[in-house]
Amino acid sequence: MGTVTLGVSIAVPEPYGSFLQGKRAGFGDPAAHGIPTHITLLPPTEADAGALPAIEAHLAEVAAAFRPFPLRLEGTDTFRPLSPVVYVKVAEGEAGCTALQAAIRAASGPCARELAFPYHPHVTVAHGIADEAMDRAQSGLADFRATWTIGGFGLYQQGDDAVWRLEREYPFRQTTALPRQADLSRPPAPTS
Predict the structure, then answer these.
(1) Model confidence over 101-130: pLDDT tens digits?
(2) Pfam families, alphabetically (predicted)?
(3) Where are the alpha helices (DSSP H) in the chain?
(4) Residue ranges of the alpha helices (H) in 5-130?
């Protein structure tokens, strides 16, 4: 069956999702158009394709245990020099994001894994580009603000073309529809 590369994240809804994706592209980040604007809960993780049903069941179980919570993005920061990333900060909702990612990566579940760095929820707006462009991203979005209520998360799969595609959404208990980025249309994943 082979392996797949999966990620789990909270989508940044409109109008903020498209705005930040456009800014990321404008800073010269070539990954901007292949990655919907998001807050990572499970970073890119290689999994056996046969494990997908168990992973999906686990994610549904995690989502059912959570309730919607407020989230606020405000200002920018960077992981430099440790990692070449500029991001928009999560100013409210960090505890909810941290609890979610811990439940998703639980040692007893099919998504168990260690992280290279301690979990720090954020929205990447520049990654691995020239320092001057990173500086421009950090200063250019320093006044950015956005608030909304988190009502669930999504499972994404990366195609051979490096584009991330939404596979399935997992609303929390008492959530009927998830806010998301408007243009999640992506060309179908290439078949090998």
Answers:
(1) 999 999 999 999 999 889 999 999 999 999
(2) 2_5_RNA_ligase2
(3) 16-26, 52-64, 94-104, 131-140
(4) 16-26, 52-64, 94-104
Bridge pairing between strands 3-11 and 38-48: antiparallel
98 three-state secondary structure: helix
Mean pLDDT of 46-68: 95
Going by pLDDT thresholds of 50, 70 and 90, the confidence category of residue 35 is: very high
163-to-42, 52, 77, 189 alpha-carbon distances in Å: 16, 19, 25, 8
Confidence at residue 175, expressed as pLDDT on a 0 to 100 scale: 64
Q: What's the burial of 43, exposed, middle or buried (CB within 10 Å: 0-12/13-18/19+)?
A: middle
Contact, 34 vs 163, CB < 8 A?
Answer: yes
Q: Is the peptide bond before 118 cis (omega within 30 degrees of 0)?
A: no
Q: How many other C-beta atoms are found inside a 10 Å radius of the C-beta of residue 35?
A: 19
Please identify which residue in the block is written with the tokens 């760095």.
117
Let me know the angle formed at the C-alpha of 177 by 165 and 186, rounded to the nearest 5 degrees: 20
Tokens in use for 144?
């950015």
CA distance 149 to 156: 21
Following DSSP, what letter does each residue of 161-192 receive, concatenated?
TS-EEEEEEEEPTT-S-----S----PPPPP-
- pLDDT the model gives residue 184: 58
192: its two tokens: 């090998």
